[in-house]
Design a protein that fits this description.
Radius of gyration: 21 Å
Structural class: alpha+beta
Order of helices and strands: HHHEEHHEEEEEEEEE
CATH superfamily of the largest domain: Umud Fragment, subunit A
Strand content: 25-35%
Oligomer: single chain
CATH architecture of the largest domain: Ribbon
Helix content: 10-25%
Number of domains: 2
Number of strands: 11
CATH topology of the largest domain: Umud Fragment, subunit A
Length: 226
């Protein structure tokens, strides 16, 4: 059922479903549960994917799963499970000008940046709109600290991963236990993370306490659902 849903999504939309979409279709509440099914399909050779990205799911040209009937090919004749994969072989050339970006719901200290439970989606973005290519990740914004910079609660920001930033850049920094989005102003004795909200005070980190690893990257784009 999972494999059929992936094939159908690629046939209908040109790209695979997200983990959440698969979960909703199959009645699986957690993304971990979805990944269990995907890993089983990978082990049996029916599916390939890059890392843990749901948008990189690709059915392989394997024989039909036990108990399934063959899917009709383009000519209408019954075919094997590779029918969709063969049609999908054109996708890479069509997607040369796009880059796949993992979107995180949050970032927490002590966990990898792309901790599985924090990846809420993957999206394809025109490469020309993002500077940084594959070194870009998405992050969902929580709070109103950057509203005067046009970054609102619930927006998705695109962040170029890097450990350095220029004065005045909007950065994502790991301060304390979680990530924050602020303007970056290094001063003589401290680093000031300035909100774009007059009602909020800046966050000051003493120069001696500041580490380059606190900087996760520089914001290069904003996406908002209307």
């Amino acid at each position: 059922m999972v494999l059929d849903f992936i094939r159908q999504s690629i046939a209908d939309r040109g790209y695979p479903p997200t983990l959440r979409e698969i979960g909703a279709r199959m009645g699986i509440r957690s993304t971990n549960g979805v990944n269990d099914h995907l890993r089983a399909l990978e082990r049996k050779g029916y599916l390939t994917r890059e890392d843990m990205k749901s948008r990189a799911l690709r059915p392989t040209a394997q024989p039909t799963l036990p108990g399934q009937v063959g899917h009709a090919g383009p000519s209408g004749h019954g075919g094997h499970a590779g029918g969709v994969a063969q049609n999908d072989s054109r996708l890479p050339s069509e997607e040369d000008d796009t880059v796949e970006v993992q979107v995180l719901g949050r970032v927490a200290a002590g966990l990898p940046l792309f901790a599985e439970e924090h990846v809420i989606d993957t999206v394809r973005v025109d490469r020309g709109l993002l500077k940084g290519g594959r070194e870009v990740f998405g992050l969902r914004v929580h709070g109103d600290s950057m509203i005067d910079a046009g970054i609102l609660n619930g927006d998705y920001i695109f962040v170029r991963k890097q450990l350095t930033a220029s004065r005045g850049d909007i950065v994502v920094a790991l301060i304390g236990d979680e990530a924050t989005v602020k303007y970056y102003f290094p001063e003589k004795d401290y680093v000031r993370f300035q909100p774009a909200n007059k009602a909020m005070a800046p966050i000051l980190v003493r120069a001696m306490d500041f580490k380059p690893t606190m900087l996760l990257g520089v914001v290069v784009g904003v996406f908002r659902r209307l």
